[in-house]
Amino acid sequence: MRSIVVLHHFLCLLLLLSHLNSVSSWKKEEFRNCDQTPFCKRARSRKPQHCKLIATDVAIQNGDLTARLITPKNFEQNPDEDSSEIASKPLILSLSVYHNGILRLKIDEDPSQNPPKKRFEVPDVILPEFESKKLWLQRHTKEVINGDSADSFVVYLFDGYEAVLRSDPLEVFVREQTSGNRVLSFNSHGLFDFEQLRVKKEGDDWEERFRSHTDSRPYGPQSISFDVSFHGADFVYGIPEHATTLSLKPTNGPGIEHSEPYRLFNLDVFEYIPESPFGLYGSIPFMLSHGKSHGTSGFFWLNAAEMQIDVLAPGWDSESSISLPSDQKRIDTLWMSEAGIIDSFFFIGPKPKDVVKQYTTVTGTSAMPQLFATGYHQCRWNYRDEEDVKNVDSKFDEHDIPYDVLWLDIEHTDGKRYFTWDRVLFPNPEEMQKDLASRGRKMVTIVDPHIKRDEGYHIHKEASKNGYYVKDSSGKDYDGWCWPGSSSYIDMVNPEIRSWWADKFAYTEYIGSTPSLYIWNDMNEPSVFNGPEVSMPRDALHYGNVEHRELHNAYGYYFHMATSDGLLKREKGQDRPFVLSRAFFPGTQRYGTVWTGDNTAEWEQLRVSVPMILTLGITGITFSGADVGGFFGNPDTELLVRWYQVAAYLPFFRGHAHHDTKRREPWLFGERNTELMREAIRVRYTLLPYFYTLFREANVSGVPVARPLWMEFPEDESTFNNDEAFMVGNGLLVQGVYTQNAKDATVYLPGDETWYDLRTGTAYKGGKSQKVDASGAIPVFQRSGTIIPRKDRFRRSTVQMENDPYTLVIALDSSGKAEGELYIDDGKSYEFKNGAYIHRKFVFSNGKLTSVNLAMSTSAGPKFLSDCTIERIILLGHLTKSKSARVEPTNHVTEVELGPLQIRTGVRPSVLTIRKPNVKVSDDWSIQLL
Ligand code: NOJ
Fold this sequence. Notes:
With 930 residues, this protein is α+β, with helices and mostly antiparallel strands. It has 3 domains: 34-349, Immunoglobulin-like (Sandwich), CATH 2.60.40; 376-591, TIM Barrel (Alpha-Beta Barrel), CATH 3.20.20.80; 805-930, Golgi alpha-mannosidase II (Immunoglobulin-like). The chain is 18% helix and 28% strand. The chain has 15 helices and 53 strands. The strands form 9 sheets. Strands 6, 7, 8, 9, 10, 11, 14, 16, 19 and 20 form a 10-stranded antiparallel beta sheet that branches. A hairpin with a 2-residue loop joins strand 7 (152-158) and strand 8. It is globular. The N and C termini lie far apart (92 Å). 1-deoxynojirimycin (NOJ) binds next to loops.
């Protein structure tokens, strides 16, 4: 026995070493493909019209349209078909309608039939207030579709839209009321299948084996699959996380040799490769479609089990006799999940921003970050010791590079026991943090969910005593291998355990932590080095007797939630948490930030980081980024510089690297390259007022900070498939450079208005591709018709910028108009929720700029005050040569003259500038050009 244990430990050690020295590339064979995943293989092999269910007993109950789904009596089972595929008991369906164009479809087993177990329904994702948005259906109308033998039932959905339940053949769809055009439909191809739970009989072999692992599957097959069609769609997007293009390529059907479906199964994947449908660290089962004819629509399936999704190439169903209305373009998709129920949402759009708003009405908008978190973060596995930290910190100042946060990876702990410090390397963690804080800087430390099984470790002692660990299938604490060696995993699904975990972040518990310390959650898929597919066995057990398979994709979400609650609790709800997480699920946006995990220092990885981050944005998680420079390997200097230049415009901006790589802080590559990286980071800092305003927009409406071009130009077909460029808000277009030795770049500038080069102010005509200089920086343009707020003074970090004056850059459209916004609050607390903020709208028209209050007025007057002024106003595209401007209500006249576009040595005065209007950002005022 002892020798088996020793052998096991030895093998685990080897595993650990292979993780540490992961110079090897992606180990495909460690992960299951669809053919090795029985539920996926079964679902993929089904033919159209497989589903024989019909809807009966259709009624309005509790404001929903409800039905029972049954197999008709006269249906003869095909002897070739597996009997498990035939639903013997009825299923229960309900359709509910919510405000603003949301339809919810639920299908589950019928509880009155006493199923062996209640299937898992994911709690804590849907916002509690969502239920209050339900429209209580009062009535339905009946109609006969296509000469069906049974009625279809029609209910009101939204202005101009209705939802239809067709009973035989079973189908649910959303259509436009007047044209009758479909928008979204469910089971139009009859691929719906729902494996109901059964009691195991003698001879049933339900075990599944993969490599050396056996999954006992005590409840047998319980998968669900169905088809969803997006009508009027040219492209589909979403369902992160995959390292692939923004518009999702078909994975099955004519012309596709062999492709895996898009997999959603949170996994720790070493050195993932770009251009793959393989599942990565997080899962969001939300797909959007966009097309010229309908606009945008979306479909979201709230389910936390392994999911696989096929995008079907046109003609995939050519052999079937189904005929859907053919005048519209359509994209069909097949959705397959191992377990759970159907709890799904149809979003009618029809504009891109409507769909993200509809989705975030269900799952929440992103939390408002602290201002510091929107600056630059410096990380490395690992900054060795306090000396190293001091050194790196002071080098930023020496090289005049602003940054806000210094990060410590796992080596700062005492033997990978989180919440502790290696006291040899970090003897005075409090002083270290205070020293950083004296320059306005923060620190982030890592806290992972695997807990070292060490009786001397207080977290382990409490967790094992209280029964807080996930159990294995035999009911013992699950024991797996991760960084600390033998580890157990906190069962974060239980609210009581989450609350216990949150308390661990109190200053009295997390010794050595101070108010300027924030947290990084890693390995929370969860990663288990010796587990199946580097994760937890699916038959492990959670609180409430829920199998791991049912909630796998939500495990990391709960961990992130509990950590975020911990930071909230330690400052009694006064300080906005900052927690970065690798795993994610719908709703993650409410708890913090995510990054795209272990990428590699290659050009193609820089390229794919853009669609990955855009995809996260349109599926709710706007605050995301990729490791700058690439985690594995050593980027060549040009790649590193380009990476900084692109990432400076993406929401979460952090440099990070594996411990095997060479040091790569921005000052290590010669003066010219330091200058280029400094410039990239500084531009980010000048634009922070704009970014912060956009984060607030995302917080209010769900619209992401970084947006695909089609979100701003939904009519322009040339944008639908473009994932090399992106918009920051509605005002900036950023074109990445993803190849070596590029002196220039070709940029497609959408719309018919002019665009202004951010560095030179040069005007470019929209509606076509332009070849532009890309030598010293990547091309970035301001859209005409927008006003962008900046802070141009160089400082060490965001804290020192607080009282700096603003610059407004106005890019006029062809009718001489422009608009923009500025949002300001204290940058850290929740007082903004009580009205303590400034929100202005700047409107330029007829030669006059006006600042209008957008903040809600309170009888007690403004709760957030700022003495900040506007020191410069730059006018791009202004043709008349004004010499002065009158400021109201002070009624003073100020000069208008040529000034530099950027405050830098060597930049010539070339743009019309209103100098020193010295109006306050918090006041109402106007400035008329004379
Ligand atoms: C894996 C993470 O993805 C990486 O960023 C981190 O440096 C290592 N774990 C060590 O904590």
